[in-house]
Amino acid sequence: MKSDSLVEQIKIRKLEEKDFELFGNEKGLWHIAEITRAHLEWLTRYRPSKNSLLVACVEDQPIGFYLNVAVQLKVADEIVDAYRGEVFVYPEHRRKKYNIFNLLVRTNHEEARRKNAVLYGFPFDRLLPYYQNRIGMRFIRIIPRYLRILNPSYILERFVRNQRVAQRLGLILGFFMNLFDSHLAPKSPAGIIVNRIHSFDERFDRLWLKASALHKIAVVRNQEYLNWAHFNPSALNSVIFAAEKNGEVLGYIVLQCDHPRKVGRITDLFDIQHKTVTKMLILKAVEYFKSEKIYKIECYLSGNYYESVLKSVGFLKIKGENDRRFPTNFIAISYSSKMNSDFFYDSENWFLTYENTRFA
Length: 360
Hints:
Elements: H1 3-9, E1 10-14, H2 29-33, H3 37-43, E2 54-58, E3 61-75, E4 78-89, H4 100-114, E5 118-121, H5 128-135, E6 138-142, E7 145-149, H6 152-159, H7 163-182, E8 193-197, H8 203-211, E9 217-219, H9 223-230, E10 239-245, E11 248-258, E12 263-271, H10 275-291, E13 296-300, H11 304-312, E14 316-318, E15 329-334, H12 341-344, H13 354-357
Parallel strand pairs: 4-5, 12-13
Antiparallel strand pairs: 1-2, 2-3, 3-4, 3-9, 5-15, 6-15, 7-13, 7-14, 8-10, 10-11, 11-12
């Protein structure tokens, strides 16, 4: 079929129940993007009335999808609807004149304009010019990346030819690193305890109301959002710790392990920005990753406060360009007529963590 005639047949519609059958089907999205039906059901579970999941069809047969995550965004004292999504196009329809990718992206932006909503995303470097020049989204910042080494032998073996020497040096460095860690714990925790949790209760609504005042722009982290975000099909290995005092929650940290790569990741960190609380949460993460035989910890997080605390417990800020494995270029556009553009596009106003980059 010629491209010109195919263009006339392409229809963009909302995702329907019958489309769910494609997920897990070898001809469906699992085949091209490893998105399962469980993932789709999870995506549509949170704020279902706000969902904007689009399907590009030819004769009602899907050839591409735009899957959105609908969240709430705190901007100054306002709460607005915001969307972050991904485009998936079937291989045989990629790089064609009719450009399904572009059709889906533009349709999604038209819907956001009608809803006076915010769109944001984290494209890889190769797609950044497209979103900036053709769609009009603004580049705001790269999410800062921090690194902490737990097993120095792992690093030394890359640079020291004699493996036996590298291992011995690693043991010596490891001893001093453990000594360093033993002196990091806050001396007066004042009744603060850090425990592992398996769900978020109503106390996290109160944490959000208290701690959100410290952030000018941030995704709303209330009880409903946190349970949805951190207990989903792709987060089965998430480990969550919460800091508490007298029964009230002061903050939480979310961790994930990539055991094959021996990498631990702090995916989310949110607290009242009290240094004792923040340090206790991060040190609990270090303790946990050590117990899991992790070699290094990665943390993607914005904010001067968190940068100072991370550095004080041995994390290094990695300078340079966007991480090739994880898209951390942050772009956004606001279609709200009430939004102050200078405030919205100011990179210093945004609180971002690795959690915000995740799609499924």
